[in-house]
Model the fold of this input.
Amino acid sequence: MEYRKIVVSMVLLHIIILMGIFGYMLIEGLDFFDSLWLTIVSVLTIGYGDISPETIGGKLLTLFLIPSAIGLTTYMLAQLAGAIIGGKLSSEVRKKRMSLKIQDLHQHIILCGYGRVGQQVFQQLRNDKQPLVIIEMDEEVIDHIPEDTLYIKGNATEDRVLLQSGIDRAKGVIVTLPDDADNVFITLTVKGMNSDIYTVVRAERDFSEEKL
Done:
């Protein structure tokens, strides 16, 4: 809603500027450039004084332009600030809610990586109604995670991130990162943190399978 108000304010501000330009051309008899200049300095309340309205009509137009432009600009900036602050707050609130929900999970699945393979695994787990948490560090990839899905933005190779995902309460970990070295490292770390957990790991090379 805030973005719509910002767009409407910008459109109205442009309309006011156009009204000023054509108004000065008709009332003051100025050419297009001088009318544009007078409109801009009036809207910005700069007032260089090199060009000023001479007629009563021009002065009345200026009295309309200045408060209208200032009011619209102030309103637009307020809406923009509200959208930015509101977006950050809603994002923080969502993260906090997800964190609390993850803390309540038990016997869930942790999916490390939401790339091509990870998305296929996720869809199967979702169809099976398995409780799960996704760990992904790429912001662009995170944007494609469904809103009702629990996830943690972070590197699955870090102990802190694994603990946040509830590794000590999870029943399984599925590692789908494209790098075999990372997958081996995560698997060994997971086993060290929860020896009873089962793991399913993506491996691109045969020697990686031997290590797993």
User: Anything to note?
Assistant: The radius of gyration is 30 Å. Helices lie at 2-27, 32-43, 56-103, 116-127, 139-142, 159-164, 180-193, 206-211.
